[in-house]
């Protein structure tokens, strides 16, 4: 599993609204420079835990996670959360959450029916460490609010189990409205199993029909991006310049053994050398089309020893030299413009 996932910018805006500086959080949490300035913010599980631990340390409010989780305004929530609210019942909502959760977090929602109880827990796929308390508070608070809101107050937790001590018992029991078992072996939210099929008053098939395709597309993109071939290409694009890549160096960058990387590539039906060549070809096309880099510089950035090696490789990919290929692209572009102009005149 590739430990890299996308963080919703909506959460970061909500944090900033509470007066916390994102620049300060980035620095204190040890996150990469310009972390919050990315068009799409990606993080590892360790970075996510560090970020929320820092938020907890600097927010000055032990109820911060509870408050964030209890905000049920649709415009404040990810489409995944809106889909849960629009579900037909709690069972349907939990199934949607379990399906789409990995789009926004490397977390697996686990639902166990045991007699009269339905036990909801979570498991972080890339670590055995427990998440910061603020993350647990936020997740269980949101799930409780979602169930209450959608059932018009009918569904309420039967019990909450937390691995932490009872320092804030009154606050937590007041918020969740149920008994809490502290120093438990797991973090779990427990409802009555009879609540699973209680109809949601917020059920909205029309809105689900709009949201579900978007979520499915995000899930497909996520699954594509977590394939090992995608991860290897991303590392290669960062590290090719002036270097001859090896399977060993890539395995180290991906924090896995060479043997594991080799097996994963074999499972996806591709060799390491094929990936290197595909990445070089993609980058070469990009560099040539921008026109900002000379052929000798392109050779260096692609990890070739000299420009002749690059020219031979490029000719093997495209059947022409880099210059001929670029001129062909320009002709195609001009032809497309001329064709578009002519078609417009004809249709007018």
TrEMBL record:
Keywords: DNA-binding, Transcription, Transcription regulation
Keyword Lipoprotein: no
Cited SUPFAM superfamilies: Homeodomain-like
Keyword match rRNA-binding: no
Gene3D superfamilies (alphabetical): Homeodomain-like
Superkingdom assignment: Bacteria
Location of the HTH araC/xylS-type domain: 230-328
Protein name according to UniProt: AraC family transcriptional regulator ligand-binding domain-containing protein
Organism listed in the record: Aeromonas bivalvium
Organism classification: Bacteria, Pseudomonadati, Pseudomonadota, Gammaproteobacteria, Aeromonadales
